[in-house]
Amino acid sequence: MGLINKGRVNIVITNKVLRYTYHKNTSVDGVVTHGEVVLPPGVIKDGTIENRSILLEILNKLVQKYKWKRKKLYFCVPDDTVVIRKLKIPVSLSKDEADGYIKTQIGNSFYLPFANPAIAIEFLESDETSRNILIFAYPKEKLTAFEAVFEAAGLKPIAADLTSLSVYRYYYVSKKEDKDHVLLIHWNQDALVLTAFQRDKAIFSRYMKIDSPEEENTGEDLRIRIVDEYIIEINRIIDFYHYSITKGEAQINQLLLSGDTPFLETAKKRLSDAVTIPVYHFQAEEQPIKYIDVLGLALKQES
Q: Record's superkingdom (predicted)?
């Protein structure tokens, strides 16, 4: 039975596409198969399942085609409603105790824009009395809806991840030098997600919905104008990081560009021209660059 279930499925879902890989192990070169399904309009809207029956039909076809029945599944959902907070807690608390403590603080010491959150906690540095932690909060009903449809298709959901964390994970194993302050610019067809990483930890995220025309209907001048409008927003986040998040003590020293937008090459060139910060972009090797998100998800270690 162990041999039959060896390997795992990894799925990243956006509002427009479902990307997948099947990996025999958690390594960059462990991929057995990969692919992408364009979702019919209205199946996923604003990160929420709107047409469960069509999504289930798509998943059933993949499970049957690749014989994924009862396989472990790791998945990413859209980063549209994730909240990242850096907080202090008493140093004596264990992770389980910290989870309970944080839940008592919601609505008191900090606020979330939604009720009933799913929360993950990451411990950071500490001193004699307190510990810094990162919390990642996401609407629980969104996660449980995805888990339910995956289970209905015969998969075994093990863990959920954020797309931005998965992309950064892939960057982390392939980067040539360490940078303490990285801004991930994950530019998809439907959204632009800007995530700031401080010493390899995500501390801030901004989600912007995109409604761009299709590439074949977009001339070069319009493409540049669209990209330049979002570069203004990227520069604002770079300044926000410097002046508000780090209080003027540090600044972004690496931009990391990824995503599935057809404007990615234009964005790379316009970004390089607009800022003095080095822009790191992935090289297409065995799979196109758009698969970096699901390849990074496949590197997430099994707990």
A: Bacteria
**Pairwise CA distance, residues 224 & 214, whole Å:** 14
User: Quick one: DSSP state of residue 243?
Assistant: I
Strand order in the sheet with 17-23: 31-38, 17-23, 8-13, 72-77, 156-162
For residue 108, what pLDDT band results from cuts at 50, 70 and 90?
confident
pTM: 0.91
Q: List, in sequence order, every residue forming a beta bridge with 31; answer none if it has no partner.
A: 23
Contact (CB, 8 A) for 4 and 275:
no
- Within 210-282, strands assigned E span 254-258, 279-281
Q: What strands lie across the sheet with 181-187, from one edge to the other?
A: 201-209, 191-198, 181-187, 254-258, 279-281
Query: Using CA atoms, how far apart are residues 231 and 19, in angstroms rounded to an integer?
Result: 26
Contacts 24+ apart (CB under 8 A), 145-149: 145/48, 145/49, 145/52, 146/13, 146/49, 146/75, 146/77, 149/49, 149/52, 149/55, 149/56, 149/59
H or E stretch covering 168: helix 163-174
Contact 135, 120 (CB under 8 A): yes
Between CA 136 and CA 160 the distance in angstroms is 12
What's the confidence (pLDDT) of residue 27?
Answer: 66
pLDDT of 159 higher than 90: yes
What is the torsion angle, in degrees rounded to the nearest 10, for the CA atoms of residue 19, residue 228, residue 284 and residue 31? -20
Structure tokens at 28: 């960059």
